[in-house]
Every structure is written in structure tokens, then in C-alpha cells.
Amino acid sequence: MDQGVIHSLKCHYPKQLILRILECYDKNKDCDISLLDAVVLLEKTWRLVTESTIRNCFSGVGHKKTQQTEDDNLPPLQMTRKARSECFFAK
Fold first, then answer.
1. Residue 20 and residue 23: Cα distance in Å, rounded?
2. Apex 89 CA angle, 88 and 91, nearest 5
3. pTM
4. Which end of the chain is more exposed for a tag (fewer CB within 10 A), N or C?
5. How far apart are CA 38 and CA 51, in angstroms?
6. Mean pLDDT of residues grouped by 10 in the chain (91 residues)?
């Protein structure tokens, strides 16, 4: 995963955690954070990662266009049979 995505998560997660702690404080509650709470906070944090950050993590990958072969148009069952007959799969 690109460092930009990880950096974004690391920046947003503490803020979400502090907001959770402040919410507990305002309600005069103990702020015990369970594993489930941590996962929920991570999910909220993930939604804060922008689409452009995620898109940029793929910019340096350098996808190459490949030439299409006749095998690309085979139905999955025929492709599997052909692969087996050519010993692509170990038995």
C-alpha cells in the first residue's frame, strides 16, 4: 500500500480517537476502548481517506498494456481445461 494512504490513516486515526475520548468525557463516562471500538474508529478513519489519495497510490505502479491472446476470449471452463492440459496446475 502506498505511503500516502498509510500516512493519511495515521493522521486521521488519532483525531478520531481523541474525539471518542472527548465524547466519553462530555458524558462523564469511562472511556474503555475495546477491539471492536478500535475497528469502528479505523473504519471511520478509512472513510476520511480521499479518493485522490487512493488513486495516487496507483500512479507509480506503471500498468503495462498487454496484447490480447486468443485464450483471453475462452469461457472460464474451457480456459481451465486448457490450463490443465498444458500442465499449468500441479496435480
1. 5
2. 140
3. 0.56
4. C
5. 23
6. 79 91 93 92 92 80 64 74 61 45
Please report the pLDDT score of residue 66 as a whole number: 62
Cβ atoms of 57 and 2 closer than 8 Å:
yes
Q: What gap in Å lies between CA 39 and CA 51, rounded to an integer?
A: 21
**Which residue is listed with cell 495515521?**
10
Nearest-angstrom CA–CA distance, 12 and 50: 11
Task: Report long-range pairs for 6-12 (Cβ below 8 Å, ≥24 apart).
Answer: 8/48, 8/49, 8/50, 8/53, 9/42, 9/45, 9/46, 9/49, 12/45, 12/48, 12/49
Q: Which of 22, 17, 6, 91 is nearest to 57 (CA)?
A: 6
